[in-house]
Amino acid sequence: MPYIPKQGLGAIFKNNRKTKENQPDMSGDANIEGTIFQVAAWTGTTRNGEKYLSLSFKVKEDYPPKTNDDFVDDDDGSDTDPF
Q1: H or E segment at 52?
Q2: Distance CA 79, CA 83 (A)
Q3: Helix H segments across 5-82?
Q4: In the chain, count of helices (H) and strands (E)?
């Protein structure tokens, strides 16, 4: 089973396979409201010499978001349940 980050969390890791300058310096996944995003990050430097990260988020199509359609309602409408 693939790793799925907890709700509201994510992680990025150094891209050790980077072969081109336009490829991200770091990448990973994030879970935002049940949707899994692929996160890419590039390091940069401002004109003033300050370092920053530029981020890109893309929905991972192989991790469909959970919806209420996934919920199975077994309630048959009878009032015999104690709760």
Answers
A1: strand 51-59
A2: 9
A3: none
A4: 0, 4
What count of Cα atoms within 13 Å lies in the side-chain half-sphere of residue 7?
A: 4
* Per-residue pLDDT tens over the stretch 37-73: 999 999 999 999 999 999 999 999 875 545 545 444 4
| Residue 42, in any domain of the structure | yes
- Burial call 36-59: b when 16+ CB within 10 Å, e when fewer: bbbbbbbeeeeeeeeeeeeeeeee
Amino acid symbol at 55: L
In contact, 29 and 7? CB cutoff 8 Å = no
Q: What is the pTM of this model?
A: 0.69
Q: Is residue 4 part of a domain?
A: no
Q: What is the residue range of 53's domain?
A: 10-60
Q: Structure tokens of 32?
A: 């935002």
**Residue 43 domain flag:** yes
> Which tokens in the block code for residue 20?
């081109």
